[in-house]
Specification:
By secondary structure, the protein is α+β, with helices and mostly antiparallel strands. The chain contains ten helices and 17 strands. Bound molecules: adenosine-5'-triphosphate (ATP).
Length: 322
């Protein structure tokens, strides 16, 4: 079990992370999200023991995780940290990079694991190629496979798919997170991409200016966002003031997703279409309502400057908030 209590680490310029608290059980997956510079990498590096904390503590089962002042070689053997600058041996092949980190097992078992990882991360075509000749995305895949060669208890991934193209990304992340669950490996990963977070994390922490704005199950973080910043990390969001819309909600402001607003033949709300955006499965429509932008979704495209009626899907909103 991982217990983080009041973790604070500030760089020389006083930027970093402050007063972070959370606990995870074995096999849990935690996503760290937040705008660029909010402290995701600093938190990940602190958890790996790369910094001497200013305050607070990190405990992995019975072991206290300490920084470089207490460790000749910073980092913990039971943990793997995959940084944004993945650390590979450039003059050896992809396969050798993975094999070098395998557990001391029989040659048969080692070959089986190395083949499994090579296939899992679609590296068969480049397994005999020297790492220095690989593309950024291929190097990143070798680095993930290498981190899993000897199964860690906790894996810390900093933007694990940043170099991988969309085409491969969907398949690879499904495989990676399924593999981690299968092996009961605890995982903490930093990302900017809501599509990494929603399907693959049990818990989500939202960071802003080095502080945790939220830490709950991913479903709660998404369904009941604490504030506009937390909600906006998952996409466009409407901040609806109760009084302006004559709505009966407990809070003065309600955060409403575009898919919770639909177009009607008649309604008490009328807006003008300002912009439309093709999103593949639907259109995102930006309306002007009394000089305020409202985002809604539509299955068909709508004409710019047309006047349209819209309404809130109260059943859906109440279901989400309850
Ligand atoms: N070595 C350092 N020295 C001084 N300041 C640093 C150092 N590393 C990070 N920072 C600062 O600490 C803050 C948090 O940085 P960090 O890299 O943790 O953010 P991040 O959320 O991972 O950002 P990104 O999403 O862009 O990778 C930033 O303001 C950054 O400029």
């Amino acid at each position: 079990m991982l217990k983080v209590n009041g973790l604070t680490y500030l760089h020389e310029n006083d930027k970093g992370v402050s007063n972070i608290h959370f606990e995870l059980d074995k096999g849990d997956h935690l996503a760290l999200i937040g705008e660029s510079g909010c402290g995701k990498s600093t938190l990940i590096k602190s958890l790996y023991g790369l910094f001497d904390l200013d305050k607070g503590s990190i405990q992995w089962n019975e072991q206290k995780i300490l920084g470089p002042a207490y460790n000749l070689v910073p980092g913990y053997p039971k943990f793997k940290h995959l940084s944004q600058e993945f650390d590979l041996m450039p003059f050896t092949t992809s396969e050798e990079n993975i094999q070098k980190y395998l557990s001391r097992e029989t040659p048969e078992k080692n070959k089986k694991r190395s083949d499994e990882l090579i296939s899992l991360f679609d590296l068969d075509d480049v397994k005999h190629q020297k790492v220095k000749t690989l593309s950024g995305g291929q190097k990143q895949r070798v680095a993930i496979a290498q981190a899993l060669a000897k199964p860690p208890e906790l894996i810390l991934l900093d933007e694990p798919f940043s170099h991988i193209d969309q085409f491969l990304k969907h398949r690879l992340r499904r495989r990676l997170f399924q593999f981690l669950k299968k092996e009961d490996i605890t995982c903490i990963f930093a990302t900017h991409d809501a599509d990494d977070v929603l399907p693959f994390s049990d818990y989500t922490m939202v960071l802003k200016d080095g502080e945790a704005q939220d830490f709950r199950t991913t479903q709660l973080v998404f369904n009941k966002p604490k504030n506009e910043y937390c909600a906006s990390l998952f996409g466009d969001i409407n901040v609806i003031e109760k009084t302006k819309f004559n709505l009966e909600f407990e809070d003065d402001k309600v955060l409403i997703f575009p898919h919770e607003i639909s177009f009607k033949k008649v309604s008490e709300y009328q807006g003008i279409i300002k912009s439309t955006y093709f999103k593949g499965s639907h259109y995102l429509i930006e309306l002007d309502f009394n000089s305020k932008s409202i985002f809604a979704t539509s299955q068909v495209n709508l004409k710019l400057n047309d006047k349209v009626y819209f309404d809130f899907d109260f059943e859906r909103i109440k279901q989400r908030l309850n």
